[in-house]
Amino acid sequence: MKCLLMLLTCLVSLLPLAAEVLPEQESAPIVVSQSPPVRYWRPANPGSTLVQTLPGLEHPLPVPKRRDPKLLVVLYHNIVFGRTGNIYNRDLYNFEHDLAYLKRNYTITNFAELAAIKPSTDVAIITFDDGDLSLYGIVYPLFRQYELEATIFLVPNFIGQVGYMSWDQVREMSDYRTNAGKKLFHFESHSLTHRMMGSLSEDEIVQELKESKARIEEQTASPVTVLALPFGNGEGDARIISAAKQLGYTAIRTSKPQSVLFALLNAWTIPALNVENYSTDVFVQKALALTGRN
Length: 294
Known about the structure:
This protein has 7 helices and 11 strands. It is α/β, with parallel strands linked by helices. It has one domain: Glycoside hydrolase/deacetylase (TIM Barrel, Alpha-Beta Barrel), CATH 3.20.20.
């Protein structure tokens, strides 16, 4: 008997370990429970400022003029207070230094303004995918303080699940305006269930885009016109582009790490730099390489 147990133990140890599935790699449920588990928190003092790691962001240097202005879209997922091994997490220290670099070198805007803007500087759009709770707990107060614009791509079937924002929090951020009346938080579509868009049928694609857009617009009372492809899957897919156009979308953001000249911008394949868990020095090097700046 003892020998048999030892043999079974050895056999189990030889089995391959299951690959870890990160939360950002999962799909939302097709049908959402009416009573999902909820764990939310709010600051003890509403409107209070988080601990800063980098003072002076309110008064950056003038953004340099460019003869050939380019667009750089940056993509984040989760913001955390400390370091972590998850590549999708960005720690607050490096995140604030990312923002300092962007604010000093780019005019920061949103997708709705792209068509009308005539830039004389490089332009950046700061985006966040999925709707993680850290966007309410960390990004919301931080961007209010610095008056930075953020575009947040939501997966409606993630909303209300543990670790994600609630619709109340989404509405609060969407309704926020600066003293000058400027809207800082723009909510767009990241599909309904975060599945690989390129592998879906045409009917499923339409459902994903139509239902996601409708739910976000219902909750925020603001138009949804931009789609971010989950995993960047389906870039350039004629079925997705056709469905998006028919449903009232005006642009699609991909996950292709590029910067693009405004003169060559294709609204249906807008690239983005996915910022992972590395230092701001690496982030700056990647941004400079993509834009061709020194």
